[in-house]
Write a sequence for this structure.
C-alpha cells in the first residue's frame, strides 16, 4: 500500500506556495514514479512545483516541520538512471524544472550563463542560436529535454573540450536542509560581480558537496561556455573486429595526452551504433541473445558500421587550417591497415554517425534515444565503470562484460568515451521491463557487473537509483564522512534520504 499524502503538510504547502503548486493526484504520482529500472516504479507521495528560491526554502522548512522527505529533480530526464522517481516512496518530489526554467543571463564577453534548474539543453541551444551562435554549449547525447543543472549535479558529461559539466560549472545557489541559502565560491560575497567567473572562491571549496549527494537543493548555477569554433570537422574510423579494441585504445591515448584532438574520443561498439538506427532483429536471430557473431557481422555491413567506431572532431578557423591535423589523425589510425576512414561529409548522411557530429558540435540530438527501443519493453539501466586507456585492460574489461552480460541473456551495448587516461565505459543494459523474469535478470546482471569490476579495482562513476546504496557500501571511510556532512547540512534528514546511499 502506498502511504497517503500527509494532509497537514499539503495544506501548509498550499497556503505558502499556492494551490496549483502542489499535486497529489494519482495520475501525476504515477507519472513521476515511472522509470526504466529493474526494481520497478516508485510513486512519490505528491509533487511540489516551486517557482523561486524563497518557495524552495518554504518547502524545505515545512518538510522539516512535518517530518516529510523531499526529492528534488530538475528536468527529470535521467533516463536509465531513475528519471523522476524518488529514492523512497515516502518522498514528495520537488519538481524545480516546471516553473524555475529561466535562462537568467548569458555573458557573451566572458562566455558564461546563469541558469535555473529547469533549463534544458535544447532551450539553451535555441537561445544561443537566437544570438547567432557566438557560443557553443556542451550537450549530452541523451534527451534534449534533459537539463544542465540536473546533469551537472549527477556528474554527467558530454564530448567537447567542455565535456566535464561539473568542471565547467561555476558558482551554485543552494537551499540547505535547514532552509538556509548558500551561494558558493565568489558568490558568497553579497553583491559579488564574479560569482560565475571565480570557481574556487575564498575558504574551502564547497561546490563538490552538492553533486551526487543529498545535502541541498540547487536553485541556480553558473556555467562556462566555449566560443563556437568557425569550422568543426569530425572524423570516423571503423574497425572490423571486437579485439581491435586493444589497438584502438593504444592509438587513442597518445592523441589525447598530447591534446592533438580537442574533443573526447568515442569508441562505439557495433550494437550501441545499431541500436540507434534499428531494432533487435527478432525474426533473423530467432530471439537469441546475445546475437550470434555472424549475424552481428551481417548487420554491421548492412548498416555501414564496424565492430568498433572511433570518432572525434577537430576545430579551426578554416577547413584549410584543420587539414594538416586531420591528415595526422588519419595517418595515426590508418597505420596498421585495420581502420576504414569515414569523412565528416559521409557521416552527415549516416544517422548513427550523425549523433557524433551533433554532440561534437554542441547540438542536442534525439537519435541516440533510439537505443531505448532496441528491445521491446523499454527497460534500461546504465552500468558506468571506469576503464584506463590501456589496450590490455580494455580487452580484459570487454571480455568480463561480454561474459557477464551473456550469462544473464543480454547484449554488449557499450561506448567508451575516452579522455587521456580514463574512459567512461558506458554500458547500457536493455531489457523487457514487462517481463518479471527479464527484469530480475537485469537486476542480477547489474549487480554481477558491479561486483566483478569492484573486485578487480574499477569503481563506477554514477549509478542508477536502484543500485546507489549498494555502490556506497563498497567504499571505505567515505560513507561515514558523508553521513557526518549530511547531519551538519540537513539535520532533519529531509532531503532525498538514501540518494547515493547517504542516509
Ligand atoms: C540514450 C541516452 C544517452 C545519454 N547520454 C548521456 C550523456 O552523454 N551524458 C550524460 O551525462 N548522461 C547521458 N544520459 C543520461 C541522462 O538522460 C542525462 O544525463 C540527463 O541529462 C540527466 O537528466 P536531467 O538533466 O533531466 O537531470 P534530473 O533528472 O533533473 O537530475 C538528475 C538527478 O540529480 C538530482 N537533482 C536534480 N536537480 C537537482 C537540484 N536542483 N538540486 C539537487 N539535486 C538535484 C536528482 O537526484 C536527480 O535525480 C543518456 C541517457 C540516454 C537514455
Amino acid at each position: 500500500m502506498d502511504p497517503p499524502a500527509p494532509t497537514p503538510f499539503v495544506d501548509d504547502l498550499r497556503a505558502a506556495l499556492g494551490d496549483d503548486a502542489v499535486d497529489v493526484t494519482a495520475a501525476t504520482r504515477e507519472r513521476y514514479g515511472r522509470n526504466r529500472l529493474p526494481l520497478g516504479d516508485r510513486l512519490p507521495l505528491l509533487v511540489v512545483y516551486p517557482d523561486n528560491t524563497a518557495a524552495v526554502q518554504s518547502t524545505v522548512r515545512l518538510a522539516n516541520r512535518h517530518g516529510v522527505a523531499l526529492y528534488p529533480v530538475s528536468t527529470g530526464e535521467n533516463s536509465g538512471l531513475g528519471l523522476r522517481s524518488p529514492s523512497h516512496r515516502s518522498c514528495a518530489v520537488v519538481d524545480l524544472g516546471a516553473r524555475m526554467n529561466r535562462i537568467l543571463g548569458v555573458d557573451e564577453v566572458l562566455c558564461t550563463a546563469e541558469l535555473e534548474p529547469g533549463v534544458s539543453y535544447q532551450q539553451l541551444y535555441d537561445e544561443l542560436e537566437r544570438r547567432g551562435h557566438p557560443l557553443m554549449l556542451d550537450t549530452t547525447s541523451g534527451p534534449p529535454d534533459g537539463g544542465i543543472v540536473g546533469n551537472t549535479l549527477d556528474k554527467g558529461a558530454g564530448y567537447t573540450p567542455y565535456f566535464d559539466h561539473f568542471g565547467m560549472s561555476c558558482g551554485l545557489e543552494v537551499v540547505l536542509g535547514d532552509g538556509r541559502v548558500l551561494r558558493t565560491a565568489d558568490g558568497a560575497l553579497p553583491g559579488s560581480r564574479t560569482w560565475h567567473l571565480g570557481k574556487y572562491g575564498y575558504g574551502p571549496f564547497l561546490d563538490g558537496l552538492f553533486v551526487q549527494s543529498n545535502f541541498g537543493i540547487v536553485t541556480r548555477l553558473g556555467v562556462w561556455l566555449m566560443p563556437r569554433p568557425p569550422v568543426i570537422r569530425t572524423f570516423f574510423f571503423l574497425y572490423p573486429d571486437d579485439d581491435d579494441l586493444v589497438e584502438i585504445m593504444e592509438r587513442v591515448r597518445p592523441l589525447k595526452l598530447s591534446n592533438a584532438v580537442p574533443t573526447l574520443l568515442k569508441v562505439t561498439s557495433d550494437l550501441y551504433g545499431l541500436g540507434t538506427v534499428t531494432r533487435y532483429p527478432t525474426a533473423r536471430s530467432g530471439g537469441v541473445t546475445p546475437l550470434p557473431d555472424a549475424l552481428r557481422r551481417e548487420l554491421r555491413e548492412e548498416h555501414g558500421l564496424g565492430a568498433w567506431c572511433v570518432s572525434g572532431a577537430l576545430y579551426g578557423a578554416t577547413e584549410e587550417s584543420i587539414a594538416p591535423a586531420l591528415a595526422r589523425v588519419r595517418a595515426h589510425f590508418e597505420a596498421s591497415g585495420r581502420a576504414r576512414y569515414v569523412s565528416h561529409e559521409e557521416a552527415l548522411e549516416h544517422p548513427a554517425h550523425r549523433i557524433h557530429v551533433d554532440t561534437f558540435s554542441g547540438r542536442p540530438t534525439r537519435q541516440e534515444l533510439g537505443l531505448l527501443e532496441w528491445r521491446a519493453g523499454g527497460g534500461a539501466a546504465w552500468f558506468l565503470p571506469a576503464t584506463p586507456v590501456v589496450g590490455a585492460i580494455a580487452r580484459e574489461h570487454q571480455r568480463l562484460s561480454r561474459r557477464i552480460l551473456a550469462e544473464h541473456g543480454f547484449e554488449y551495448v557499450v561506448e567508451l568515451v575516452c579522455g587521456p587516461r580514463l574512459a567512461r565505459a558506458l554500458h547500457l543494459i536493455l531489457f523487457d521491463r514487462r517481463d518479471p523474469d527479464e527484469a530480475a535478470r537485469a537486476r542480477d546482471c547489474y549487480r554481477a557487473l558491479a561486483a566483478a569490476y569492484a573486485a578487480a579495482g574499477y569503481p563506477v562513476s554514477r549509478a542508477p537509483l536502484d543500485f546507489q546504496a549498494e555502490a556506497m557500501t563498497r567504499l571505505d571511510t567515505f560513507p561515514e564522512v558523508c553521513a557526518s556532512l549530511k547531519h551538519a547540512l540537513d539535520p532533519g534528514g529531509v532531503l532525498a534520504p538514501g540518494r547515493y546511499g547517504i542516509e
